[in-house]
Structures are given as C-alpha cells and as structure tokens.
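Design review, sub-item: ligand-bound model
Attendees: FS, YL, KQ
YL presented the inputs for the coproporphyrinogen III complex:
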Amino acid sequence: MEKNDLIVPKDFPELKNDTFLRAARGEEVEHVPVWCMRQAGRYLPEFRESRAGKDFFETCRSPEACCELTLQVSIDLFPQPLRRFPFDASIIFSDILVVPQALGMDVQMSPGKGPVFPEPLKEPDDLQRLRPKVDVDAELGYVFKAITLTRHKLEGKVPLIGFTGAPWTLMSYMIEGGGSTTHSKAKRWLYRHPEASHKLLRQLTDVIVEYLLGQVKAGAQALQVFESHTGCLGPAEFKEFSLPYLRDIARRVKDKLKDSGLDNVPMIVFAKDGHYGLEELSQSHYEVVGLDWTVDPRSARERTGGRVSLQGNMDPCALYATKERISEIVKTMVEGFGTRGYIANLGHGVYPDMDPESVGAFVEAVHTHSRQLLNRN
Ligand SMILES: Cc1c2[nH]c(c1CCC(=O)O)Cc1[nH]c(c(CCC(=O)O)c1C)Cc1[nH]c(c(CCC(=O)O)c1C)Cc1[nH]c(c(C)c1CCC(=O)O)C2
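KQ shared the predicted structure:
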C-alpha cells in the first residue's frame, strides 16, 4: 500500500445514525444505542459459512473479507435472512493479536482451542526477538485498508469502531502463549522481572498509539481498548502495570489527533473484571468506560461520578433466557444506568452457541425500553 493512502481524507458518506457517538459524548439521544462485542461472530450461521475452512489470520489480512464479515451483521446490504439486527454501531472484524504479530511474533488460531503462540516469550532476553521499531503502516496497513473499505460500504448507516488490545492483555498472551486461567507465567514477569515487564509494556504502548491513530486516519469513528485480562491483577498491580499505559494511550492518541488537525474520536476503555479500578478508569482520558456484568449499574454511575459515559453490561449468559426474560433484564439494566451517557452492550462477547434470535431480542428490548423511558421524561 502507498503510504499516502493512509492519510487522505476519503469523502466518506454522511453519517445517518449518530446515536452511538452522541451517547459516547453524553449528549441527548432518542433511544439508547446498542451494539454487542463479538457481534460478527460464530453464533451466526452466515459467519461460520464465510469463515469455513479459512485460516483466521488470513481472513484478518484480507480487507475485503473483513469488510464483508463486518457488514453481514451491520447493515441492510444483504437480502434476508442475511441482514440481521439494527445495531447502532459496527466494529471492524479483526483481532487484538495482530499487534504481537506486527512485533514479529508468530500467532496461529487453532480451531476449537483459540490463539496459540508457538514460541512465546519465556525470559527477558526473549524481548530481543521482537522488532525494536515497528513500521505500523507496513505491518498493519491491511487493517487500515479494511477500515476504509468498510466505512465506505457502511454508507453512513452506523459509525465504525476500531479497536486494539491493551498492553497488559497483549503482554500476557505473548508470555502465556495462548489462553490461561491463572496467567501465572505472565504474572511471574510482573513480580520477578518488573523492569523487563515495563519495557515490554512501553514497547506495546508505542505500537498501539500508532495503530489507533492509523485506524482513525483510515476512517474509524470511535476506538475501543480491550484490557481483557484485568481480572487476574489486583489493585496494586493494576495501578502499576495496566492503568498508566491505558492512560498514556488515550492521552497520546488525543494529542496526536489534535496535532494532525484531525477531529477527536470517542475512546472506550473496557477493563474486564476491573471493577476495583472504576474510579481511576473514569479519570483516564477515555470518554466511555465499558463494564462487565459484575458491576451494578447504579453503583457504577456513582463511582464514576458523571465523568464518563458507561457501556455494558448484561451478562452474555442472559441470552440463554427466554425473550420475555431478556426484555425484563434489559429494562432493569436501562433503568439502572439511565438513558443519558449510556451505550447498551453485553458484559463480554456473544458466545458461539448463542441463538441469534436472542441477540435480536436484546437489541429490540434496548430500543423499546429506552424509548419508553425517554418519552416519559
Ligand atoms: C482476548 C481477545 C481476543 N480477541 C479479541 C479479544 C478482546 C475481547 C475479549 O476479551 O474477548 C477481540 C476481538 N476478536 C474479534 C473481534 C471482532 C469484532 C467483534 O467483536 O465482533 C474483536 C473485537 C474477532 C474474533 N476473534 C476470534 C474469533 C473466533 C474465531 C473464528 O472465527 O474462527 C472472532 C470472531 C478468535 C479469538 N481471538 C482471541 C481469542 C481468545 C479467540 C478465540 C475465541 C474462541 O475460540 O472462541 C483473542
């Protein structure tokens, strides 16, 4: 790709539904916007069909495939039954592990097992295996291309969210070599090799900042930072090894957007199971804090003191309930958060065995109940 492709303003179609962006900024809305993490995922038969027999990261490297997978759930582009739900935002199809790949690590997606790093980092000396300087445009330009293409093809129907994994979550994958319940190999580094840990976290942060900027230049209208592995840290480790980098990312992305004359975009931080850090997260330069289902909506509002919009947080497993029960749960959730400065979502991704109809019921319940509440006020 030509370098210049990445910075040209691209005459994108005008945005028609900006409810998600308004809610992120705490502005008035006609209904509460809703989207789901992993909304373009294996719970959809059409997704399984398009992905069938194809290597996961090869799919990620194809802008056309990423665009199609994103659009499948997002807009009225395909004839029924392929068109799905009236989500208020779309998230680009990709993965957080493309960043360790850009740093030079091999990552495979093993069907039924999840991500695998054949040669994880074992000791601080292994940091020498990483590229000291990453040319983000060269290594991750395929994501930027996918974003530009998808933004055009969305025809302004809903905004497009870009994303990244946060430094601690990526570091833990790079050391564990895949999923883990204890994260003990990665946590061993925090306790035994704190300096090397900070070195790696800084290196990841530098790449992530460039990566997010590239996504905005390519057309992303909001950004979500996934700190999926907050739950295995305690408050002290979180404050030392996660929070400073999360803050640095938001501050640097915003400063650089300003310096480049680009408009600010709302940023969402989702630190899964990081309830202990809610106060700090709401003072970290993000417009939105994403919540998992272990946090009570009213208490989250109190603890974040109106400083940020909130996103979340229905237990994904509630999608196993009947439609009527889903509707009740959603009603309680929306009442708890209130309709202002709120983006409805699940507390984590949709699981592959979930019924698409239940996702539809969730989306409809958010729109219906929030409209009723707003009309009453
Ligand atoms: C930890 C993490 C990963 N990836 C991601 C996270 C952070 C969110 C979280 O906490 O879950 C983020 C991610 N991964 C994917 C997206 C796309 C956008 C969306 O949310 O719809 C996003 C935002 C696609 C994907 N990423 C993956 C899939 C499923 C694999 C496939 O399609 O073959 C999808 C749709 C694979 C993946 N990628 C990852 C894992 C653990 C897995 C395996 C999951 C499994 O096996 O169920 C790493």
